Amino acid sequence: MKQNSMFPEVVPDKLFKVKDERPLPLIIAEMWGFPLTYVDKERRDKDYLYCARDWYIGLGGLKGNWSTHKSDWLSSVEPVMIETKRERRAPEMLEYVTEKGLYDIAQVMKVTPKNADRLQPIKDYLSVAGVHVDKERRDKDYFLQSTKAKAKHHGIRLEAVEERKTFASIATETHVNRKPQIGNLTSMVYHKLGRTQSVYTAKKEIAAQLNLTPKQERQFRDHLKPLMLDAVKMAEKASGIKMRNAGKLLNDYEQMEIVKQCARIAAVSAWDLAAYVSVDLVTEKPLLNAKN
Questions:
Q1: Which of 161, 212, 246, 291 is the most exposed place for a label (fewest CB within 10 A)?
Q2: Contact 101/109 with Cβ under 8 angstroms?
Q3: Alpha-carbon distance 80 to 62, whole Å?
Q4: What is the reported pTM?
Q5: Which residues contact 202 (CB under 8 A, 6 or more apart)?
Q6: What are the residue ranges spanned by the domains of the chain?
Q7: Low-confidence stretches of the chain (pLDDT beneath 70)
Q8: Exposed e or buried b for every residue in 149-168, given b needs 16+ CB within 10 A?
C-alpha cells in the first residue's frame, strides 16, 4: 500500500537512535502531526493519561463517530473522566486512558480506504516499537532487567536446541535407513508426558492447555513450563542412550518403542514430582485441594 507523502515513512528504528525520552504516543502525535492532550498524574511520564478522543481522531477516526461508537474503542480499557478546557470552547468531560489504553484503541480500529494512509503506518509503527520496546527505551532499570531476561531465555533456548539436535543425530545414526521419524518420536514424548488423548494431537492438546497462539506454537518448546521441559529433555536423552546401547541399527518400530518406554518412565517420576509440589506438570498451575 502506497503511503501518502504527507506522512512520515515507517522507520521505527530511527526512534531509538535519538535521545528523546518522551513517551512514544507523544512522539507519534508529533510525527503524524495531530494534537494529543495529556495530564501528568504524578509528574512522571509513565503516569501520563491521554485524551482517547484526540488519539482516535489522530489515527484517522471520524470525529462524528466518536460520540456514537466510543464504547467500541473503549471496551478493553478503563477510561478516567477528566474535565478538559479547549481554546474558545466550554469545558467538557472527556475520557482519558493510559499509554497501553491508546495501543488497545489502535489495535481495535479498522483500516478503511479513508484512514489507510494514516492508520496503517501507525499500526505498523506500533507493532515494531510497541509498549515493551518503548519502556526499555525510557526506563534504564527495566532495560537492564529485560536484557538479562532475554539473555537467560536465549541461553535456555540454545541449550534446548542443541539437546534436540543431539537427540535427532543419535536417532539418525542408529536408524537402519538413516531416516528416523523425528516428528513422530517427539510427539510420543509429548503424548506420554502430557497425558494427551492421542500421539498425533499431543502438541496441539498441550498448546491448548497453555493457551498458546499459533505463533507461540511454532516455537513450542520456548513455552513449555520448566518441569515439563526438563522431563522432555530427560526422556529424549535417555532414549538416545538406549538407542546407542542397542548394539544394532533400529527400525521405526524399535525406535518408537524405546522412546515410548523412556517417556513413560520419565512421565511417572515427573508427574509424581509435580504432585508433590502441588502443581499440574503441563501448566504448573496449583492443584485443587492440594495437600502439602
A1: 291
A2: no
A3: 22
A4: 0.50
A5: 187, 188, 190, 191, 194, 196
A6: 12-138, 140-276
A7: 1-20, 41-46, 64, 73, 76, 125, 127-161, 288-292
A8: eeeeeeeeeeebeebbeebb
